[in-house]
């Protein structure tokens, strides 16, 4: 990650800091102090899903249709209730095709950084590339 960051102009890194990700987050902060910590909670998941839904329905998310893993990953996410039954949340079951929706959650990490003007038709200077 450090080599990629040095070779390109990186403006945003969002890291799932839940569980073992906390260690990754601390290491990345050493060379990229602006890294954003994302802790998965029902509220955070809802925010991420609603942002993705808005971005997709307004036609602002584009990707090559050959990347079927992206589509299957988003489709694997479903709304459910927390174990206590007091709040709604989003989850994905693990499958070989969607692999626990990891690709969709990673894309949603990036979408959290999209400027507010993008939703109202303003131009977003952000480019998201997947390797």
What would you note in describing this structure?
There is one protein chain. This protein has 131 residues and is of the alpha+beta class. The protein is 42% helix and 12% strand. The chain has helices spanning 2-7, 21-31, 42-57, 68-75, 102-111, 116-119, and strands spanning 14-16, 36-38, 77-81, 88-92. Strands 1-2 form a two-stranded parallel sheet. Helix 4 (68-75) packs across helix 5 (102-111). The model has no long low-confidence stretch (mean pLDDT 84). Keywords: Viral release from host cell. Residues 10-113 form the Terminase large subunit gp17-like C-terminal domain.
Features:
alpha+beta; 12% strand; 42% helix; globular; two-stranded antiparallel ribbon; 4 strands; viral release from host cell; Terminase_6C
Number of domains: 2
Order of helices and strands: HEHEHHEEHH
Query: How far from one another are the termini?
Result: 12 Å
Mean pLDDT: 84
Tell me roughly what share of residues is in helical segments. Answer: 40-55%
Shape: globular
Q: Structural class of the helices, strands and pairings?
A: alpha+beta
Beta strand count: 4
How are the strands ordered across the major sheet? 1-2
Radius of gyration: 15 Å
InterPro entries: Terminase_6C
Keywords: Viral release from host cell
Pfam family, one: Terminase_6C
Domain Terminase large subunit gp17-like C-terminal: 10-113
